[in-house]
Design goal:
Elements (H helix, E strand, L loop, with lengths): L1 E5 L20 E8 L11 E8 L20 E2 L5 H10 L2 E6 L5 E8 L10 E7 L31 E5 L9 E7 L4 E4 L4 E10 L3 E6 L10 E5 L5 E6 L8 E8 L3 E12 L14 H14 L15 H10 L5 H8 L4 H19 L3 E12 L5 E9 L6 E5 L2 E2 L10 E6 L2 E6 L8 E7 L2 E8 L8 E3 L4 E4 L4 E7 L7 E4 L2 E2 L6 E5 L5 E6 L8 E6 L4 E9 L6 H18 L37 E3 L4 E4 L4 E7 L7 E4 L2 E2 L7 E5 L2 E6 L8 E7 L2 E10 L6 H7 L3 E4 L4 E6 L7 E6 L2 E2 L9 E4 L3 E6 L8 E9 L2 E12 L6 E8 L5 E6 L11 E8 L6 E7 L4 E4 L7 E10 L2 E7 L3 E2 L13 E5 L4 E4 L13 E8 L6 E2 L9 E4 L7 E10 L2 E2 L9 E2 L11 E8 L4 E6 L11 E8 L6 E2 L9 E4 L7 E10 L2 E2 ...
Parallel strand pairs: 10-16, 26-33, 35-42, 43-50, 77-84, 95-102
Antiparallel strand pairs: 1-7, 2-6, 3-7, 4-5, 5-6, 8-16, 9-11, 11-14, 12-15, 13-14, 15-16, 17-18, 18-22, 19-20, 19-23, 21-22, 23-24, 25-27, 27-31, 28-29, 28-32, 30-31, 32-33, 34-36, 36-40, 37-38, 37-41, 39-40, 41-42, 44-48, 45-46, 45-49, 47-48, 49-50, 51-52, 52-55, 53-54, 53-56, 56-57, 56-58, ...
Length: 1516
């Protein structure tokens, strides 16, 4: 016996080795083939070691491999528990098969996982009685011949093992293979797992499913299905638990071979069941491997950034609104470890929330947590059934209220439709992360969290355009707001492949991304962009050629780079791009480097230019153009790069016709093509379409209907071929099918197929399905029909039951709406007797009959019947009837309503007829009942039936209104009562009413007349119960009513009349006693509206002068009011309008339209309204049409006086035209050809200008512009500049005197200080002071020693030392001490003042007046000035103070004293400011109070002027 260890044969580069790759997860399949001769069972292959480390030596373990008996039998390992532990820990699979000749295949799938230490390999040790076979990687020339002679077939897909069981496979047959193998799944417990495998082979292979833990025979747990004629096989595992975690194998076998693949199912447990041990998992080995792996991790992760702390209360609200599957994640994130306590607290909080929400909310449904869509908008929504629509909804973020709007213009907005509420957060920023809460009034409804990781990064510092020399390096740099590992660089909107020429650098914080283009070429010119999840930043790279490079050289470089890129497969392939030498927003500036797209020469020599062409992929394309004369051979360009025959194109020239031929068009050849000959150029675009392709056999299969049963899953798969990415859109009967992640339809798109999955088919899914495949190359569509079979729906009701009176019970129904897709076979009817629970079969009816008679019922008993429709799918649901009574004999029917023969206060006489129908043949008599109108209680009139059909009811109350009904009595009993009679009063006959009064016409129109009248006089008759309105044409003698019945009110409008026709009108009052005397109008009433004099409707937008630009369209609407429609006339300057002017009149609007205004359209326009009665109304407006003036004539320069020059020019031609506004002129000047123009004179109305101060030795250039209100004309420049020769320099020397610089430094000081202010509420307060100092001092404002910088209630200004503090609207909080502090480097100065805000009242205002004393100046000549300054200190009439006249008491005296003190301080401050120039005023001799409203402004009762106005509360 030889003991050999199988070592991997593939190298590490081939994927066979794992050493040296610590921590990497890589898979490799190592296959070994060994053969043995048939021998006794005592010497089989035996596994002496499974899952042991190769670098630690071999050691045998108990167990082994059972002999491979029959062909195709699978060898199962019997390794011990340690083998299973290693296998589970290292996650590798060892499989082996044997064939009939004894060739054994062992496949070891190794995978390095988190539990496998780096640098180790796992292998398998086989012991056999012969030398080991050659490894697969061993060279063929050095191998020996295989004894079996049949090598194993290699699987085309990873993870699939194929086995051929015969020597040769006949033609047309094949071994099994997996076109699509089942994928590994990781699902949450409680879900359903579905493995799908697509198996091919001829003949059709048999597919079996296995698992390592046991069989799959439990049909309720495991459902194995496959559609007839389909290659897809499905294994569905229902209601997953932790025990379902296992490796599931799928085996396909036919006559010629066998194929096997496997997939692992991992069940994610939720809650506390996660931590429990499973008996089949070796926890100790796993823990040990995990500890070994942790010891090898030397590199520690960086410390996480400190997270913002969230209030635990918000976390509990977040848990209460989260799904149960998210509990663990939220608890781990916020440090909650007591899970059981968490659940108890959540249950308690839910009860408390329900109690809080009870007054406001009926139900809360469909809570959807916050998600960020592709547009970068975060949304979360819910459904609220509010008890009151007036309840207010609030949004909070981390406990703070967030205002939101109802439109898409605000950052936070609410979209409300019915009970559905959706909140949106736009323009996401990192600071938007947090916990959001929705509250109704004061009750929390829903909480959700926006995590910072879901917010897409923003571009903080965008890319900037780069420019470099050829072969130089270009650098692009961009900064993001948050790290984005998925950020990608693109060149010309295509992904950029990084290489030695394109290097990317990312900063350590992940925010700054840098791209370096090494050795830039002309082919690198274009648009570079950095794209994140949502945002992108772009910039242009411009590669500048050397000075010796011309256009052709640069073009050749482009062409050479393009060919080189095509050969090397580089990423810098030429595509259509704009000129890289300019910004996308700038105008084109031609440069060296190629022919630009935007450069278009004259096209006059092209008899036929290039035309845009579209061609299918692989087809031939031709671009052609023709010239009118020979301009040479010309050149072809694509996207600015010159083309040659080496580019896969062919050039042809036939005389003056030039053609470009492409034999087989490809996607890379699409672009912008141009032909250049001389200075002529023509351009066109070539588009290559490459739509997806659906095979013809697939289309033929789709024509056959797909038939499934209801409740089964349906998968509709359409394979296709496409070279471009494909988008698939499924639609049903013309309506798009939306594929979502819920329980509805699921749409999947692969590289070569699209699939529509319906989890559970129903009858509503039947119909015509179509799938549209779209790509950049085109669109293709396929259709298929789906038929779903189901049981039929119940028959349509109601189920009518009729008693046949001894002949049985007759049942009637209608066929079902839906037969379930199968034809009806019969109807099954059943009955149930009242009081019993069993249903008995009554019989069956054929499919074409909807009636049935049950003759087995018993009279006098109650029954319930039901009917079902039956098809091949089985019986459907039943239609039940109401409970019916089978009567022994028929009762008489209800008699008709009785008729009223007569009515009086003594009695009412009735009559009726006999009823008809079964049971009415033998009538014994009739019972009569009465009731008051409006009552529900019927009272019997007679106790015994009366045989007559006439009766007088005597027991009635006079004046009451009664109703009557009759019941027929037969031997079988009384029948149903008949319907009631009309209501009638128990009173004597009424007398007719009198005539109506005050009949008049209130309104008329072309088709109606409105009348009104007063009720008749009560003394003329009884009260009227209604009115009859009648009309009679002026040419007729017959009166006809205008309505049916009577009119209850005293107004009526007769409609449908003929326009302008005259009518006679009369009104008659009506009651039960008859019609009264009619009242008619004496005159004829014409059906026409009331005449309205024509007048124009003007508003504030109406202008008398309109100014427009020449060439514009002018539309002047004029609204008017008139009845009837007047004649409208438009005039221009008193004459008719020109023919090109258009006017229109419609519905009170007349309009003037000038399609293109010209200068001749200027003038006075008049609109005249003339009614048929000769009344007129006129409206005039002036229209002025102006245009930009034309350039003035040539400029003539003349020498004037010494040091001056006179500029004269010819006037603009617009001055000579009539109707145009005369322009004015502007003269521009510059003294050098490189200097900019500057104005020398403006608004000149003459053609002459003299410039003084002309300096010798300088050149003066002049430019003249004509201007009006619409703009300036083209300039008129001087041909030669004006120059005065420089005089010869004087040899005398002058010594410049020296000056001592003046020191202006000064400490700040207030020239004018602040003054106190007393203002009422709502007034504007402006505190002003003047400060001086050098360096210029900075002034800061304070209120009560608190700085006012940034205060929203006040703002300050500083104009050349005059500083002001303005409070737009003073309020009570603005009272206080204000201070202005001026500071510079030498010191500071302070000025203070007080602000008193007085509350207003409704009391009459008072005015304080005193005679102004004569001024007493100390310095003569300044008395008036000081007198006025004194008034300024005390206040002017514009600053009068108002207060309530009723303010009394101590508060009044306090305010008075404060006011006097402030006035005194203001006067002292003024005196200090004016130094010694202060005017002394004596005390006022008299004080007079007078109501302010009784005095004229600025006047007083005494002598002098009013010096101060103050509230009464401030008067002492």
């Amino acid at each position: 016996m030889l003991c050999e260890e199988l070592a991997p044969a593939t190298t590490e580069e081939e994927g066979g080795g794992l050493s040296g790759r610590g921590g990497a997860c890589r898979e490799s399949a190592v296959t070994y083939i060994c053969s043995r001769r048939r021998q006794a069972a005592s010497s089989p292959f035996r596994a002496t070691g499974s899952a042991q480390q190769l670098d630690t030596g071999r050691r045998e373990r108990p167990g082994g491999w059972r002999p491979a008996g029959s062909p195709g039998r699978r060898l199962e390992g019997e390794a011990g528990e340690d083998y299973a532990s290693r296998r589970a820990a290292a996650k590798y699979i060892t499989e082996s098969w044997c064939d009939g000749d004894g060739a054994v295949k062992v496949e070891v799938l190794t995978k390095t996982s988190a539990l496998t230490a780096p640098g180790r390999r796992w292998g398998c040790v086989l012991t056999a009685g012969r030398p080991p076979p050659y490894p697969p990687a061993y060279p063929k020339e050095e191998r020996g011949s295989c004894p079996s002679g049949k090598p194993l077939r290699k699987a085309p897909k990873p993870g699939v093992s194929l086995r051929q069981l015969v020597e040769d496979v006949p033609e047309g047959c094949s071994t099994p293979d997996f076109e699509q193998k089942p994928v590994t799944l990781a699902l949450q417990e409680g879900k359903n797992a579905i493995f799908r495998a697509v198996v091919s082979g001829e003949p059709r292979p048999e597919v079996r499913w296995h698992c390592s833990k046991g069989d799959l025979s439990n049909s309720s747990k495991y459902q194995i299905s496959s559609s007839l004629g389909s290659k897809e096989h499905v294994l569905q595992i229902n209601k997953l638990t932790g025990e379902d975690t296992d490796l599931y194998r799928c085996t396909a076998v036919n006559t010629y071979g066998e194929a096997t693949c496997s997939a692992r199912l991992t069940v994610i447990e939720v809650g506390f069941r996660k931590s429990r041990k499973r008996q089949n998992e070796p926890q100790e080995d796993l823990k040990k491997e995990l500890m070994d792996f942790r010891k090898m991790l030397k590199k520690r992760a960086p410390a996480p950034a400190p997270e913002q702390k969230v209030d635990q209360e918000y976390v509990w609200h977040l848990l209460m609104a989260a799904d149960r599957k998210d509990y663990e994640r939220i608890c781990l994130k916020y440090g909650i470890v007591d899970f059981r306590g968490m659940l108890r607290r959540l249950q308690k909080m839910r009860k408390e929330r329900e109690e809080k929400l009870a007054p406001y909310v009926n139900a809360i449904l469909n809570l959807r947590h916050i998600k960020v869509n592709k547009e970068g908008i975060a949304t979360f929504d819910l459904e609220l059934d509010l008890k009151s629509p007036e309840s207010k909804i609030y949004l909070y973020k981390d406990g703070e209220m967030v205002p939101y709007g109802c439109d898409n213009q605000t950052k936070h907005c609410l979209r409300h439709l019915g009970n559905h509420y959706q909140f949106q957060i736009r323009d996401l920023r990192p600071e938007d992360a947090g916990v959001y809460q929705v509250r109704v009034e004061d009750a929390d409804v829903f909480s959700t969290e926006l995590e910072a990781s879901t917010i897409p990064p923003l571009v903080v510092v965008p890319l900037s355009d780069a420019r470099c020399q050829e072969r130089g390096d270009a650098v692009f740099q961009c900064t993001l707001s948050s790290p984005c590992p998925s950020a990608t660089w693109q060149f010309q909107h295509r992904p950029l492949q990084l290489s030695d020429r394109y290097e990317e650098f990312v900063s350590t914080d992940g925010l700054t991304h840098r791209l370096v283009v090494r050795g830039a070429r002309f082919s690198d010119m274009g648009l570079y962009s950095l794209g994140t999840k949502l945002h992108a930043s772009s910039a242009w790279l411009v590669v500048e050629a050397g000075k010796d490079k011309s256009l052709l050289t640069a073009s050749a470089d482009h062409q050479q780079q393009a060919r080189r890129a095509g050969k090397e497969g580089a990423s810098d392939v030429h595509r259509p791009r704009p000129d890289p030498t300019r910004s996308p927003r700038s105008r084109h500036k031609p440069g060296a480097g190629g022919v630009s797209e935007d450069t278009r020469g004259p096209t006059g020599l092209f008899s036929q230019g290039l035309a845009d062409t579209e061609v299918q992929h692989g087809k031939a394309a031709v671009l052609s153009c023709s010239l009118t004369r020979d301009l040479g051979p010309g050149a072809w360009f694509k996207d600015g790069v010159k083309l040659s025959t080496r580019d896969g194109v062919t050039f042809e020239q036939d005389g003056l016709a030039h053609r470009l031929l492409i034999a087989h068009a490809e996607g890379t050849q699409a672009g912008r093509y141009s032909f250049v000959a001389g200075d002529q150029q023509s351009q066109a675009t070539l588009t290559v379409h490459d739509p997806p392709v659906i095979a013809p056999d697939v289309t033929a299969k789709l024509r056959e209907p797909l038939v499934v049963k209801a409740g089964k899953p349906v998968t509709m798969k359409v394979p296709f071929q496409s070279r471009l990415p494909v988008q698939a859109t499924w639609s049903k009967d013309g309506t798009e099918v939306a594929g979502g992640s819920g329980r509805g339809a699921q749409v999947a798109v692969g590289d070569s197929f699209t699939r529509l999955c319906l989890p559970s088919a129903s009858r509503k899914d039947c119909g015509q399905y179509s799938v549209t495949l779209r790509s950049q190359g085109g669109t293709v569509q396929a259709t298929l029909t789906l038929q779903v079979l189901d049981k039929p729906q119940p028959p349509q009701g109601p189920l009518e039951v009729q008693d046949g009176h001894g002949a049985g019970v007759c049942l009637r129904w209608r066929p079902p709406r839906d037969d379930g897709g199968r034809p009806l076979e019969q109807y099954v009817l059943e009955r149930q007797q009242a009081g019993r629970s069993t249903w008995l079969k009554a019989g069956a009816a054929p499919a074409d009959s909807t009636t049935f008679t049950d003759a087995h019922t018993e009279p006098g008993k109650k029954y319930t019947f039901r009917v079902r429709a039956v098809t091949a799918e089985g019986p459907g649901e039943a239609l039940e009837s109401e409970e019916v009574l089978v009567a022994p004999e028929a009762l008489p029917g209800p008699p008709p309503p009785p008729a009223i023969l007569s009515a009086s206060s003594q009695g009412i006489t009735l009559s009726w007829t006999a009823p008809r129908g079964p049971g009415s043949a033998h009538i014994l008599g009739y019972l009569i009942e009465k009731r008051k109108k409006g009552s529900n209680t019927w009272v019997a009139v007679n106790q015994q039936p009366v045989p007559e059909k006439k009766w007088t009811v005597l027991d009635l109350r006079q004046g009451c209104q009664y109703e009557f009904r009759v019941t027929a009595v037969a031997p079988s009993g009384p029948g149903k009562p008949g319907p009631p009679s009309e209501a009638v009063f128990a009173r004597d006959a009424m007398s007719p009413p009198g005539p109506v009064r005050d009949l008049r016409v209130t309104d008329t129109s072309h088709t109606s007349i409105t009348l009104s009248w007063a009720r008749p006089d009560p003394q003329d008759g009884d009260e009227a119960q209604g009115y009859v309105v009648e009309l009679c044409g002026s040419a007729s003698l017959q009166w006809s009513p205008c309505h049916a019945g009577t009119v209850p009110g005293t107004t009526y409008t007769a409609k449908g009349l003929r326009p302008r026709e005259g009518y006679f009108v009369r009104v008659t009052a009506v009651n039960d006693g008859g019609r009264g005397q009619p009242t008619a109008l004496d005159t004829v009433v014409h059906a026409m509206p009331v005449a309205v004099c024509p007048r124009f409707l003007m508003d504030t937008s109406t202008k008398d002068v309109l100014a427009v630009r020449a060439g514009d369209t002018v539309r002047v609407p004029v609204r008017f009011e008139a009845a009837p429609m007047p004649e409208v006339t438009w005039l221009k300057d008193g004459l008719c309008l020109p023919k090109r002017s258009v006017t229109s009149v419609k519905d009170g609007l007349t309009q003037l339209l000038l399609p293109s205004a010209s200068l001749a359209d200027s003038g006075l326009y008049t609109v005249v309204l003339r009614s048929p009665r000769g009344e007129e109304a006129t409206y005039r407006f002036r229209l002025r049409v102006a245009a930009r003036p034309r350039a003035p004539g040539p400029i003539l320069l003349r020498e004037g006086t010494l040091g001056s020059v006179t500029v004269e020019w010819a006037p603009s031609p617009d001055e000579a035209e009539a109707g145009a506004a005369p322009p004015h002129y502007t003269v521009l000047l510059r003294t050098s050809a490189r200097e900019p123009w500057r104005p020398a004179a403006a608004h000149l109305h003459t053609c002459r200008f003299t410039l003084a101060g002309v300096l010798p030795g300088r050149e003066y250039h002049f430019r003249v512009l004509a201007q009006n209100e619409l703009g300036a004309s083209e300039p008129s420049d001087t041909r030669q500049p004006w120059a005065v020769p420089r005089p010869p320099p004087d040899r005398a020397t002058v010594k410049a005197p020296s000056y001592r610089e003046l020191d202006l430094s000064q400490k700040p000081r207030f020239l004018v200080g602040l003054r106190p202010h007393v203002l009422p509420l709502g007034c504007e307060c402006c505190m002003t002071c003047a400060v001086q100092g050098w360096p210029r001092p900075r002034v800061t404002w304070f209120k009560n020693d608190q700085s006012l910088e940034g205060s929203p209630a006040a703002y300050s200004t500083d104009m050349l030392g005059v500083c002001s503090l303005v409070i737009p609207s003073v309020s009570a909080v603005d009272r206080g001490e204000y201070k202005a502090v001026a500071e510079n480097t030498l010191g500071q100065a302070v000025s203070t003042a007080s602000l008193i805000v007085v509350e207003s009242s409704s009391e009459a205002r008072r005015t304080l007046e005193w005679p102004c004393p004569a001024p007493q100046p100390w310095n003569k000549g300044r008395s008036l000035k000081h007198h006025s300054s004194h008034h300024t200190g005390l206040g002017s009439q514009s600053q009068r103070m108002e207060d309530a006249a009723g303010a009394q008491g101590p508060r009044e005296r306090g305010v008075r004293g404060l006011r006097g003190k402030l006035l005194q301080e203001g006067t002292e401050a003024l005196g200090k400011t004016k130094k010694k120039e202060v005017l002394s005023l004596p005390a006022p001799s008299s004080v007079t109070e007078r109501t302010a409203a009784s005095l004229p402004p600025g006047r007083s009762a005494g002598t002098g002027s009013i010096c101060r106005t103050a509230p009464k509360s401030l008067i002492s």
